Amino acid sequence: MPVNGVLSNSxxxxxxxxxxxxxxxxxxxxxxxxIQHWPRHYxxxxxxxxxxxxxCPGSNMLTAELGQLVSGHENGVVKIIITRGQGGRGYALPxxxxxxxxxxxxxxxxxxxxxxxxxxxxxxxxxxxxxxxxLAGIKHLNRLENVLAAAEWNNADVAEGILLDxxxxxxxxxxxxxxxxxxxxxxxxxxxxxxxxxxxxxxxMEWAAIHSMSCKVxxxxxxxxxxxxxxxxxxxxxxLWPVHEMLSRIWANSPVxxxxxxxxxxxxx
Amino acid sequence: MPVNGVLSNSxxxxxxxxxxxxxxxxxxxxxxxxIQHWPRHYxxxxxxxxxxxxxCPGSNMLTAELGQLVSGHENGVVKIIITRGQGGRGYALPxxxxxxxxxxxxxxxxxxxxxxxxxxxxxxxxxxxxxxxxLAGIKHLNRLENVLAAAEWNNADVAEGILLDxxxxxxxxxxxxxxxxxxxxxxxxxxxxxxxxxxxxxxxMEWAAIHSMSCKVxxxxxxxxxxxxxxxxxxxxxxLWPVHEMLSRIWANSPVxxxxxxxxxxxxx
Lengths: 269, 269
Description:
Two copies of one chain form a homodimer. By secondary structure, chain A is an alpha+beta fold. Helices cover 26% and strands 33% of the residues of chain A. Chain A is built from eight helices and 17 strands. In chain A, strand 4 and strand 5 form a beta hairpin. At the A-B interface, strand 3, helix 1 and helix 5 of A face strand 3, helix 1 and helix 5 of B. Strand 3 of chain A pairs antiparallel with strand 3 of chain B, so a sheet runs across the interface.
């Protein structure tokens, strides 16, 4: 993997990404030799870096390095990590920031096809997300909540965990965003106090706008979720997974989710 | 610095410490060739690892590696980072965890002597700490709140920032624990929902017990703090710094804090 433009499998043990989780990342799908939605991911990277007072590497440089990384590969998962690099006295920001960039290419996910078609079984996590408006929405490297949440189950038939916040509001999946459909309307949780706002969440909102379907962002309870007509998770690696089972409730069909899934998979510009 | 027992300045770019901040750390003072309070730090390391479902390296091995690290050095700052190493599918824990350990020795702090004697000027941070009981007290690698708080000031005469939580309770310094003295009583903030419980905080409580002084752990408001007879910060690197100035309030003398400071500096077993 290229680390700051040089082939390497390691980073400095003084990198603030390690010391403090002081950085951001993106995970993207490589499909037919093309990184899906790279311009949109780069825009999010810029926004997240800005929110963290972090220098974002230039688009041309990153695009060129990504091109080299995926050259000769058709499918896979591409990850970019941007950290604040080295320096600074303790937590204080370095006087001259020099971000580190770590690019890596991994094999495509090997999830069973029925996760896409029939849908998945979901665990409701005991781990609750803290409210931190200053970091909400950002895909940063402080991911202990996700790690501890994912440690709650290891039966292979549970494909995702659902995260509530400390007040009991439903927020997201451990690695995905969440939507419900109720009475012909899409609803997705408010992420202004916690959670990560992924680009597939934005794309579902675009689908809704194009198809004149209402899409609300609001506080959601678990009880309301259980009454949903359909429920689904999205992220850039998995695409869209309908929920088949959660807390003994079964969703036999997910007709609208399937339409959205098809659109997400086709519209990969 | 030794990384997993081998001299190196780098770690794997796949280490979960970098990917997720999935690890814990300790910062300790080397003084007269001896790491102060190592057994106590090791005990905290074990507790923090246990709380994070993380394998803690054995005491004998770490003690031996630390001995090699500081051999021939008299004074400095020693840092230990323990991460969950590599592996796992995304956030999920690796089936076979192999922790990484990164030990480093840095020069002693060069803070002006008057921080210890006259006391320090304090910034009240706008950054508020989130409530996350599952991680509260643990010295883990998810430290973005501290980084963003420390970014709020850069005038050299401000030595520490004070952190409140999202409800406005006073919690700690950006890299230290906080005590106030009021009517002959010590009070330190409750850290059950956020903050890091350092070993110098425990030691101040021990001082109080030995000297038959009451020491309460409770919720503290900024208003109450401003009415304190004395105010001080402690950590393993700085020792004890009295507060001289905060929000235009001046504390001219800190007689009890000075007694505690002397005791902390002498009792370094």
